[in-house]
Specification:
Structural class: alpha/beta
Shape: elongated
Radius of gyration: 20 Å
CATH class of the largest domain: Alpha Beta
Largest sheet: 6 strands, mixed
Number of domains: 2
CATH superfamily of the largest domain: Pyruvate-ferredoxin oxidoreductase, PFOR, domain III
Strand content: 15-25%
Strand order of the largest sheet: 2-3-1-4-5-6
Number of strands: 10
CATH architecture of the largest domain: 3-Layer(aba) Sandwich
Mean pLDDT: 86
CATH topology of the largest domain: Pyruvate-ferredoxin Oxidoreductase, domain 3
Distance between the termini: 44 Å
Helix content: 25-40%
Order of helices and strands: EHEEEEEHHHHEHEEHE
Bound molecules: iron/sulfur cluster
Number of helices: 7
Length: 296
């Protein structure tokens, strides 16, 4: 039996680490495993995908997972993004675990043949870690659904996070976060169909363009890629403090700062990705952050 899992997240949320934690946990349970990421645009906030296969036999497949048994979606804004297309190829009888506050019935209404599980990982991460870092949370959700044992899983969380250099305090907090998520869900008996002998190649839009969207390798397509839906937080300027020194303009990596007709600095929220570099660099502390999608 082989399980194929595909994680979809945004650069910086921890999709690659989630795939590693899951693979390591399955290995601790006695399975063979593979895990690897693809970064696409290589920018913080850009859609990324990562893959884990685990099996009680040899794994002879290689390459991207086009027909997953489980998808883990770390950011619900990816669902509408033709560049990410996270449910592409989800197999009949499979399962999607989605980080969202939306009800599960609204997410994939045309796929009655797949189970949709929703959980507010961002809210839990902000409470428990103080940051919207989701690797251990999404890995916990998928591991639980896939039936990976708790002991193997928590060992994998600690091992992998130590390996990426997290402090012991953050490792401990992540283990607690993972335990909380694991405890929220129940294992599923997945009845996905066996793959046909020839792999069904469903385009994965991180690599191959979706409808109406330029391929990531095409030149001059940045303007059509609105990065505003990447945000967890938006910067807000307090014009009573701001002196229009334009230091934020100089530092903004998305060129999302400009000068309005009234001569004051403006933020283009269609392209601001919420990195908060402007907040850090503003010498007058004239920029604050405000939560998106119901966050404080
Ligand atoms: S860096 Fe601060 S003070 Fe300067 S223009 Fe930006 S918001 Fe205003
Ligand atoms: S948060 Fe600030 S620096 Fe970052 S993209 Fe938005 S406007 Fe630019």
């Amino acid at each position: 039996m082989m399980l194929r899992v595909r994680f979809h997240g945004r650069g910086g949320q921890g999709a690659k680490t989630a795939s590693r934690i899951l693979g390591d946990a399955a290995f601790n349970d006695g399975f063979n495993d593979q895990d690897f990421p693809i970064y696409g645009a290589e920018r913080r906030g850009a859609p990324v995908a990562a893959f884990t296969r685990f099996s009680d036999g040899d794994i002879t497949e290689r390459g991207f997972i086009f027909s997953p048994d489980i998808v883990g979606v770390m950011d619900d804004s990816l669902i509408e993004d033709p560049l990410a297309n996270p449910f592409a190829g989800l197999r009949k009888g499979g399962c999607a675990v989605v980080n969202t506050t939306k009800p599960s019935g609204t997410l994939l209404p045309d796929r009655k043949d797949a189970k949709i599980i929703t959980i507010d990982l961002t809210g839990m991460a902000l409470k428990m870690l103080g940051k919207p870092i989701l690797s251990s949370g999404i890995a916990a959700a998928v591991a639980r659904v896939a039936g990976v044992s708790e002991g193997s899983f928590l060992k994998a969380v600690a091992d992998e996070l130590r390996e990426v250099g997290l402090s012991e305090e953050m490792v401990k907090k992540n283990v607690e976060f993972a335990m909380a998520v694991y405890g929220e869900l129940a294992p599923l008996t997945l009845r996905t169909e066996e793959l046909p002998s020839k792999l069904e190649l469903v385009p994965l839009a991180v690599v191959v363009s979706g409808e109406g969207m330029e391929d990531v390798t095409q030149t001059g397509n940045s303007a059509v890629r609105h990065t505003g839906n990447w945000r967890t937080y938006r910067p807000v300027i307090d014009y009573r403090r701001c002196t229009d020194c334009m230091i934020c303009y100089a530092y903004c990596p998305e060129s999302a700062m400009s000068v309005g007709e009234d001569g004051r600095v403006r933020i283009d929220y269609e392209n601001c990705k919420g990195c908060m570099i402007c907040l850090t660099e503003c010498p007058l502390k004239a920029i604050s952050q405000s939560g998106e999608r119901g966050l404080q």
